[in-house]
């Protein structure tokens, strides 16, 4: 059971750091790694996710996760996430499943995840916009 949880979280880092950000910025994954401000935000999201996982008893290395996310961006610079596409096309997104999982983990373990909370609300606010 522990291992399953660990594997799920291991895969989650890329998703929770890139999906919400590419969605609100409406950019591809390459932009996140290339732009200093976007990358700083991305690292902040990874930091909170690592801390939230630690609160649940799962130990992940922050620098390792940052390197992994950077590698994903470099490998698929034109990559678009599902949240990006959902917001572009005026659909509801999976943000509650993706970023929401970090928020829930933080609440459960008493770890603050303000950036993830902010992005979840922001994306819901974007979902409500009138279609262009």
Describe this structure in a few short sentences.
The protein is an all-alpha fold and 132 residues long. 73% of the residues lie in helices and 0% in strands.
Structure, described:
The protein has 132 residues and is mainly alpha-helical. 73% of the residues lie in helices and 0% in strands. It has seven helices and no strands. The chain has helices at 2-25, 29-34, 36-55, 62-75, 82-88, 99-109, 114-127. The N and C termini lie far apart (46 Å). 33% of the residues are buried. The model has no long low-confidence stretch (mean pLDDT 94).
Shape: globular
From the alpha carbons, calculate the radius of gyration and give it in angstroms. 14 Å
Count of runs of 4 or more consecutive helical residues: 7
Task: Report the sheet with the most strands, covering strand number, pairing sense and barrel closure.
Answer: none
What distinguishing features does this structure have?
globular, 0% strand, 132 residues, mainly alpha, single chain
Helix and strand arrangement:
Layout: H1 2-25, H2 29-34, H3 36-55, H4 62-75, H5 82-88, H6 99-109, H7 114-127
């Amino acid at each position: 059971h522990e291992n399953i949880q660990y594997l799920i979280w291991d895969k989650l880092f890329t998703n929770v750091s890139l999906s919400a950000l590419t969605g609100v910025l409406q950019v591809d994954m390459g932009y996140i790694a290339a732009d200093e401000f976007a990358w700083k935000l991305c690292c902040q999201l990874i930091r909170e996710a690592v801390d939230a996982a630690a609160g649940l008893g799962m130990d992940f290395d922050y620098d390792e996760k940052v390197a992994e996310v950077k590698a994903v961006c470099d490998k698929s610079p034109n990559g678009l996430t599902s949240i990006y596409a959902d917001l572009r096309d005026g659909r509801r997104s999976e943000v509650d499943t993706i970023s929401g999982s970090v928020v829930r983990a933080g609440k459960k373990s008493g770890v603050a995840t303000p950036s993830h909370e902010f992005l979840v609300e922001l994306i819901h606010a974007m979902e409500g916009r009138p279609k262009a």
